[in-house]
Amino acid sequence: MPALPSLPFPPPAVLLPGNLRRRIGERLEHFRVPDFTVPAALAKLAGRLPQQPPTMALTLALNLALDRILPRDTLAPLNGRHLQMRVLDAGLRLDFTLGDKGFQRAAPAAGDGKPDLVISATTRDFIALALREEDPDTLFFSRRLRMEGDTELGLLVKNTLDAVDWDALKAKLGLGR
Questions:
Q1: Is 0.90 topped by the overall pTM?
Q2: Which fold has domain 15-172?
């Protein structure tokens, strides 16, 4: 039996009726990430678990953005550099690098070997950054976002994220206002 042709699938926002889509859009427009901290018991447990699954989720998300909203040529100085993202209240240390095939998990720094760049914040602050609710400079100067190591790499990451046209991305996904 021949395979059925696949139909294009509309963006999720198009599937909602107009009134519901408008109401959800209005609520999301005014949504603010609430202040929260991952409970200490959960953070202690997460810190003992293998870090590979959350690192793989992070690198998958970064690879989906690579060349779509994160220009590879701008990120060239990150090639082969060991980066670490520390989610302070969740006990996570996510080690990754950028290679020819995109972002991938990097072996954690052993002994006195340190990552080239460490970016640290709480879960809430990383979510707020991703949603563009908080500005990296504001978090940095209020000491809620820390960068250690090669500050030139840190500035590159910050400036690349600042240069992303998030409104154009929302419009492309059918989420524009």
A1: no
A2: Nonspecific Lipid-transfer Protein; Chain A (3.30.1050)
